[in-house]
Design a protein that fits this description.
This protein has about 600 residues and is of the alpha+beta class. The chain has a seven-stranded mixed sheet with strand order 4-7-2-1-9-12-11. Strands 14-15-16-18-17 form a five-stranded mixed sheet. Strands 22-21-23-24 form a four-stranded antiparallel sheet, with no helix packed on it.
Length: about 600
């Protein structure tokens, strides 16, 4: 390590930086001893992208007989156990004289280092990583930091420094903040913040924009699509619109700089993981190259909203962290599920889902997916949140929380004359929890809803959050001018992609003649249809498997196609705007979709 990284007296002017970046209050940790002042790291990738050479320096040590090194059992945001130790090999520790010290494995994830008489220790090991680039392309490696960096319990709350030593032509990208005094060194106030920054090193693309006086970086890595397959300017604009719509919900950006790390890899489907000022999002590169980007848009909105909900609005157990055991909470239905609700809200308000009925279809599909599960109405959202660590999820707290978010938004707006909304609750929680102070305690969520909106939600929480009753969509949604229409296996349906005005929402090139988006359905087997309600009533009398004549109108021209009636193979619901809804009810749905009234 360079001499500039050696310990020195702490600087008083660094205190505000430490506090702002996240000295976390909460459950007690092992007492910091009177020796090491900061933990210094150097990360050196192998030129072929297969290994990271990791070096951790602990100095000065004072009368230490031993040091216990550990690797996390899990990573925040991913509520499952992991075997990160499997990627670590060639672990050694040397003292100030270069003498190798004895290391004894205490268990699979902990190692005791003989530190008797040592005034410093340098710990080195190799970490197996994966080159995510195309074959024969320059390497690019992504790493989740809890899977890469060891820790010492006594030093969790100390500042951590990081230096990169990269092969020629390589870059690095992450949310790490530059040290205010040491050139080429990155600073974190503690281990929690240190490992809350995923890292990409190698060759990749950088894009970005400024929004509300904050820089936002868009990093693309992995098996990159071509410009034609994935227009960069178009994607960056979508990200900007997502960020802006999320800002409008909560009202501020709690970061100096935000980094999106978009990876295009061989992963099946896609996933994302939230962090304090960044996110990792991976998506199957073949799907992106085929133009299927809606899933990527959804994950982007979801992870960005986690910037507030989970990273700032969080239960006590989610910071500071105990990396040696699970972190159970009953509130994942809110942390993840309400975030899923706002995923759809943000996409709608950002204008990325132009079909006016898309939002209702998405919420109905979410409920329909749960209705077919034996655990629906049996396992409460609090229970599904708590048992995720047990690996036997019977029903998703994501889906349950999304449904609850929609219901609460409608009920809050109804009880307040559409003067308050769930947006106001989120804004309040963001300011009340006051990260990095202690997080939410049991029942704080229901207290916040009632305090902000005046709606007495105790019965709702007892029945549908703590309790396991089926969600009251049929009773609640008419308050927003929405009818709930249920269907069962064996029921007939057309299977046409129609919006609320009976117009096609996408092209149907395989019909004869081919149909186009916007074509207006006007007759079914000679019977005129003027509304979705009338169409459902007509279709309910048809027989699955038979063919019917459909007439569409396109710019004054009529198109006639033969269409086979389909048969439902599962139960589900439709959410349909009521034609006779009053203005107040219509305003509730409009407020959800368009984002009014503005949050207070």
């Amino acid at each position: 390590m360079p001499a500039t990284l050696r310990p020195r007296p702490r600087l008083a002017h660094l205190l505000p930086l430490v506090l702002a970046a996240g000295v976390l209050a909460g459950p007690a940790r092992a007492q910091t001893p009177f020796d090491v002042e900061h933990v210094d790291w150097t990360l050196t990738p192998a030129a072929d992208g297969s290994v990271f050479h990791m070096e951790m320096e602990l100095a000065p040590l004072f009368q230490r007989d031993r040091i216990v090194l550990r690797i996390p059992l899990w990573r925040p945001g991913s509520y499952r156990y992991a075997d990160y130790q499997d990627a670590i090999h060639d672990l050694v520790a040397v003292d100030q004289d270069g003498k190798e010290r004895a290391i004894e494995a205490l268990d699979a994830r902990a190692w005791e280092v003989d530190a008797a008489g040592a005034t410093s220790l340098t710990v080195r090991y190799d970490l197996d990583v994966r080159d995510a680039a195309e074959e024969d392309a320059p390497p690019v490696v992504h790493v989740h930091s809890p899977a890469a960096f060891l820790y010492v319990e006594e030093y969790l709350d100390l500042p951590h420094h990081l230096r990169f030593v990269l092969p020629t032509g390589w870059e690095h990208a992450s949310g790490h903040r530059p040290h205010p005094e040491l050139e080429g060194v990155f600073y974190s106030p503690n281990y929690d913040v240190f490992v809350d920054c995923p890292i990409v090193v190698g060759r990749f693309e950088r894009h970005g924009f400024e929004l509300h006086d904050r820089p936002i970086e868009v990093v693309l890595w992995g098996k990159l699509p071509t410009e034609e397959e994935f227009p960069r300017e178009e994607w960056v604009e979508k990200v900007r619109r997502i960020c802006d719509a999320a800002y409008d919900v909560v009202g501020d950006f709690p970061f100096e700089r935000y980094v999106f790390l978009f990876g295009f890899t061989d992963i099946g489907g896609g996933y994302g993981l939230e962090h304090l000022n960044s996110t990792t999002i991976e998506f199957n590169h073949r799907s992106i190259k085929a133009g299927r980007v809606q899933g990527l848009e959804s994950v982007t909105a979801h992870e960005f909203f986690h910037l507030w909900n989970v990273k700032r609005i969080r239960p006590e157990v989610l910071g500071p962290f105990d990396y040696s055991t699970d972190a159970r909470t009953k509130d994942l239905w809110w942390m993840e599920g309400v975030t899923s609700y706002y995923t759809d809200v943000i996409l709608q308000r950002a204008g990325l889902r132009p079909d006016p009925d898309w939002f209702l279809r998405a919420q109905a599909a979410n409920l329909g997916g749960m209705m077919g599960l034996p655990a629906y109405g049996e396992v409460s959202p609090e229970r599904s949140s708590w048992t995720v660590w047990d690996g036997r999820q019977q029903i998703s707290y994501y889906d349950q929380g999304q449904a609850l978010g929609f219901l609460m938004d409608v009920l809050i707006r109804h009880h307040t004359g559409n003067r308050r909304s769930l947006d106001d609750v989120v804004r309040f929680l963001h300011r009340w929890v006051d990260y990095p102070d202690r997080g939410l305690r049991p029942d704080d969520l229901r207290r916040a809803v009632r305090a902000v909106t005046g709606w007495d939600c105790d019965r709702f929480f007892d029945r549908y959050v703590r309790g396991s009753q089926r969600f009251p969509f049929a009773e609640v949604l008419p308050l927003a001018g929405i009818e709930v229409v249920a269907y069962q296996p064996g029921d007939p349906y057309l299977g046409l992609p129609l919006d609320g005005e009976l117009r096609l929402s996408r092209d149907l090139p395989d019909t004869d003649p081919p149909l186009e988006r916007g074509d207006h359905l006007v007759r079914v087997d000679g019977k005129k249809v003027k509304s979705s309600v009338q169409l459902r009533e007509l279709v309910s009398g048809l027989t699955p498997g038979v063919s019917v004549e459909l007439r569409f109108r396109r710019k004054g021209q009529e198109l006639v196609v033969e269409w086979k009636v389909k048969e439902r193979n599962r139960s589900g619901v439709h959410f349909v705007p009521l034609t006779d809804a009053d203005d107040d009810s219509r305003a509730i749905l409009q407020g959800i979709l368009e984002g009014f009234p503005e949050g207070v």
